[in-house]
């Protein structure tokens, strides 16, 4: 068992985790950071294209965390990493542009740029996928010449009555400036979300790939404003 999985076994041993039982934020953020870097180093031959447009590509591979897929997505965004990540990480900007997110509250703030947040997402595919609620531990740190914003869901409290509680296994966004143009950044994301509930796998796969493409569309639009 890796140190990362040891930490998560502490987190997920029960159905609920009280704030007092959470591990040190710096320890958990370091482990998530290392896990995302391991995803970033996966060889190209392990990925299969799930969706491709002229400016975004989405790949996937079987997840090692749950019975679903780890998605990788990549595209160039015409902005600097600091400004891009300000719009991605938990904060005042996210609800202004992310068409999938319907609410977000910061439950607790920690040191080292970490927080715990509760957020909800809209229904998808004509509400075949009903609204979901997530509670995530999130952190942002420097990575090379750019930034890495990453997180993982934790079991905490009860889900809202109108939502199914989903679960994000380690996810994150690498944002680094282009070497030949510092005002353009390569944004690479790794997402593995267990939506839970009784859902057709084909619907989940279709929604995930399309959602990731739309994420770039919405982000680019708000950054041009």
From TrEMBL:
Top-level taxon in the UniProt lineage: Eukaryota
InterPro entries referenced in this protein's UniProt entry, alphabetically: StarD4, START-like_dom_sf, START_lipid-bd_dom
Domain START stretches: 44-225
SUPFAM superfamilies cross-referenced by the UniProt entry: Bet v1-like
PROSITE patterns linked: START
Protein known as: STAR4 protein
Residues spanning the membrane: none
SMART domains reported in the protein's UniProt record: START
């Amino acid at each position: 068992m890796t140190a990362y999985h040891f930490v998560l076994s502490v987190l997920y041993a029960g159905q609920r985790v009280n704030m007092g039982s959470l591990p040190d934020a710096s320890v958990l953020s370091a482990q998530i950071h290392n896990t995302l870097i391991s995803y970033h180093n996966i060889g190209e031959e392990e990925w299969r294209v799930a969706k491709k447009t002229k400016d975004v590509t989405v790949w996937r591979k079987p997840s090692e965390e749950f019975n679903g897929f780890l998605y990788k997505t990549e595209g160039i965004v015409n902005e600097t990493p600091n400004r891009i990540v300000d719009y991605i990480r938990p904060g005042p900007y996210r609800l202004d542009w992310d068409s999938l997110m319907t609410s977000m509250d910061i439950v607790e703030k920690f040191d080292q740029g970490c927080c715990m947040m509760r957020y909800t997402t809209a229904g998808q595919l004509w509400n075949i996928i009903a609204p979901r609620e997530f509670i995530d531990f999130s952190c942002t740190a420097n990575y090379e010449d750019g930034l890495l914003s990453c997180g993982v869901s934790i079991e905490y409290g009860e889900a809202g009555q109108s939502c199914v509680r989903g679960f994000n296994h380690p996810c994150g966004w690498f944002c680094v400036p282009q070497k030949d143009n510092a005002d353009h950044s390569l944004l690479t994301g790794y997402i593995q979300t267990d939506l839970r509930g009784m859902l057709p796998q084909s619907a989940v796969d279709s929604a995930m790939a399309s959602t990731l493409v739309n994420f770039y569309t919405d982000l680019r639009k708000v950054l041009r404003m």
